[in-house]
Fold this sequence. Notes:
Blueprint: E1 9-16, H1 22-38, E2 42-50, H2 62-72, E3 118-121, H3 127-137, E4 140-143, H4 144-155, H5 159-173, H6 196-228, E5 233-239, H7 245-253, E6 270-273, E7 282-286, H8 296-301, H9 307-310, E8 314-320, H10 326-339, E9 347-352, H11 359-368, E10 373-374, H12 380-397, E11 399-406, H13 413-419, E12 421-427, E13 431-438, H14 440-451
Parallel strand pairs: 1-2, 1-3, 3-4, 5-7, 5-8, 8-9, 9-10
Antiparallel strand pairs: 6-7, 11-13, 12-13
Helix pairs in contact: 1-4, 4-5, 5-6
Bound molecules: guanosine-5'-triphosphate and magnesium ion.
Amino acid sequence: METKPPVPRAILVGVQLPGVGDITHAASLNELGRLVKTLGYEVAGSVSQKRDEIGGGTVLGKGRLEELAAMTGGTGMVGTMAPARNAKARQRFDDADGKPRSTPHRGPDPQPPRGPEFVIVDHEISPSQARNLERATGAQVLDRTGVIVEIFHRHAHSREAKLQVEIARLKYVSPRLRESSGGGGRQQGPGAGESDLEVDRRKVRDRLAELKQQLESIQRDSDERRSARRDQLRVALVGYTNAGKSSLMRALTGSEVLVEDKLFATLDTTVRALQPETRPRVLISDTVGFIKKLPHDLVASFRSTLAEALEASLLLFVVDASDPTYESQLEVSRSVLKEIGADAVPSRVLLNKIDRVSEADRAELRVRHPDAILLSATSAQDVAALRETIIAFFEASMVEDELVLPYAKQGLLSDVYENARVLSEDYDATGCIIRVRGLPAAITRLRRTLAG
Length: 452
Ligand SMILES: Nc1nc2c(ncn2[C@@H]2O[C@H](COP(=O)(O)OP(=O)(O)OP(=O)(O)O)[C@@H](O)[C@H]2O)c(=O)[nH]1
Ligand SMILES: [Mg+2]
């Protein structure tokens, strides 16, 4: 028999605040469910309540809290008499009769029946609210930020992304550190006089400083790489998570980037040349996706990953047009880009996954977004048309000019071919006279290299 660990189960908790419509509220909970599934948990149910604010000790009112506790097998009580969660030897209760299902400390139970182990709140909650909810439900409590940070943690591949996520994670975890339950708190030796909690916090601070230093040195390298690409033709695919950025990246560049029906499949920026290659070539970058209520620290830490987008000449805003909340996704993407200062870059909206949209809805999309491009990443024809649009965009800002390549510098000819389109080559006494078409900045740089 297979001995796979059981899939953890989670109950979602949402509070519908004044001004938030039913559809938006439901979509947000639905998205939280997808995030939770991305973590590998099963969604076992949800509890939601209309309230004026998220404030208050337990997020939910008393009645809803009891309802939630009944689902997880908790006591529903927050008082200090209620047992705080203890991950290893937690007492589990049957949903129906409230009796313990297994006696703790009796060794592994082969198939212990269990209630959902996680309660996941669709808002950012305070450490004390989390603690109270844990007491009442007997489950481990995470909020939306915690889930996103955890997904980022699992999906980060490059060293830069890993460092960025580790920083965001420590910033998230440190205020949630609490006095470890195991005894005294005071200790001997270095750091004597500090409580365990103070020691933990100091370790976190030291680690954060160390990580930031490492990140800065990596970022210096990638800044250099980026500035070397500055006068190249660059397009960044940006937009909401799962919109199809990586699918378009694959289709446009023939690269094997990861495409998955998961939120935050991509965390690292990938840069590849548009295929079939153009002269000068166009570089496309695939970027990390955005999401509603993206934790601020993550936005800040991904600023450098998104610097790629900032320096692009053209942003392609990818939107999943088959998603009923696509308008708000577009809004979120715009506001994140504004936050990182990329709102001045020329952009085009790509309404993707149009193959899933009915003819009537397509007509409406065209009316609402007359400047947008309707397409499907799965259609070769649509992708070819997008390629033409990209080329035309750059073509419009290109100029024709003449460069002189002295005979002594023939080695630089490949540099010219890389960065501009060569229209003709003529030879005279001074060297090679090359007529080129390219971006003004690229031509200026080439002229400087050839003369210097
Ligand atoms: N039907 C249809 N599905 C698509 C289209 N484009 C992408 N998908 C699917 O949508 C899912 C997400 O696609 P990705 O390309 O990974 O999306 P992404 O924007 O890179 O997502 P993240 O990296 O998570 O931010 C995958 O299951 C794709 O196969 C499309 O035009 N039509
Ligand atoms: Mg992706």
